Amino acid sequence: MNGGYVTVDCKGLNLLGGSTPQVKSGLYKALKDALASGKEILACNCIYGNGHPCSPISLLVQQESSTQIVGTASILQVWVTNEDSVTIVSLLDNVSNAKVSTKSSK
């Protein structure tokens, strides 16, 4: 990493949009280019819920497949397809739905 960061304009992406796909034109290419830069990625111009703007968010981004990029920000995963369809997944839902064993292994 050569220092610095890359900002990606998320064009009003609603971080609480849930499983309802949102289309954000050009987002896949912007994330792919940012990932190739090797720099920290900050998502900007996101909203939180009903139009509440939020500060830029640091993303951990990976190329999941040839047609999908996944970004993780705090408790959210942002799935972006090469057709710019975006789905938000809460990592907390996965934790709360997991079964936790309380039995001793003894």
The major beta sheet can be summarized as: 8 strands, mixed
Question: Regions with pLDDT < 50 over 5+ consecutive residues?
Answer: none
Mean pLDDT, to the nearest integer, reads: 88
How much helicity do the residues have? 10-25%
Please provide the ordered H/E string of secondary-structure elements. EEHEEEEEEH
Number of strands: 8
Strand content: over 45%
| Amino-to-carboxy terminus distance | 47 Å
- What is the gyration radius calculated from CA atoms? 16 Å
Helix tally? Answer: 2
Number of structural units classed as domains: 1
Q: What form results from the Cα inertia axes? A: globular
| Class from secondary-structure proportions | alpha+beta
Overview of this structure, please?
This protein is α+β, with helices and mostly antiparallel strands and 106 residues long. It has one domain. The protein has helices at residues 27-37, 91-97; strands at residues 5-14, 22-23, 40-48, 52-53, 57-65, 68-73, 76-81, 85-90. Strands 1, 2, 3, 4, 5, 6, 7 and 8 form an eight-stranded mixed beta sheet that branches. A hairpin with a 2-residue loop joins strand 5 (57-65) and strand 6. The radius of gyration is 16 Å and the shape is globular. The N and C termini lie far apart (47 Å).
